[in-house]
């Protein structure tokens, strides 16, 4: 019997600085691009590439979509259930 739902998506939370960046977005095209990128990382939190760094803090990842021209810097919690967006560039 098939599962009634698809795979579980990670929850997305915004840091204070990312929330301020989000508030500054006024273009519908930029909001659409951001929405698409957030869907990608919520479905697959490992979609972005690891950024260089040490193991003292969270491992930052970067998701870049050249078609939509968007870049997200984020980290994934240990349980991989919450993706916290740290930076938005549209």
Tell me what you see in this structure.
- This protein has 90 residues and is α+β, with helices and mostly antiparallel strands.
- Helices cover 28% and strands 30% of the residues.
- The chain has two helices and five strands, in the order βααββββ.
- The protein has helices at 16-24, 28-43, and strands at residues 11-14, 49-50, 60-65, 70-76, 82-89.
- Strands 1-5-4-3-2 form a five-stranded mixed sheet.
- β3 (60-65) and β4 form a beta hairpin.
- The protein is globular, with a radius of gyration of 14 Å.
Helix/strand order, N-terminal first:
EHHEEEE
Roughly how many Å apart are the termini? 42 Å
User: What does the overall shape look like?
Assistant: globular
Uncertain stretches of 5 or more adjacent residues: none
> How would you state the average pLDDT, rounded?
87
How many H/I helical runs? 2
Strand order, main sheet: write it out: 1-5-4-3-2
Q: Structural class, from secondary structure content?
A: alpha+beta
What can be said about the biggest beta sheet?
5 strands, mixed
| Beta fraction | 25-35%
DSSP strand count: 5
Tell me the radius of gyration. 14 Å
User: What share of the residues lie within helices?
Assistant: 25-40%
């Amino acid at each position: 019997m098939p599962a009634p739902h698809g795979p579980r998506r990670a929850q997305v939370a915004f840091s204070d600085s990312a929330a301020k960046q989000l508030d500054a977005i006024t273009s519908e095209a930029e909001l659409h691009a951001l929405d698409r990128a957030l869907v990608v990382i919520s479905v697959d939190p490992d979609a972005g590439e690891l950024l260089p760094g040490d193991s003292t803090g969270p491992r930052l990842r970067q998701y870049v979509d050249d078609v939509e021209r968007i870049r997200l810097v984020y980290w994934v919690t240990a349980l991989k259930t919450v993706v916290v967006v740290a930076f938005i560039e549209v």
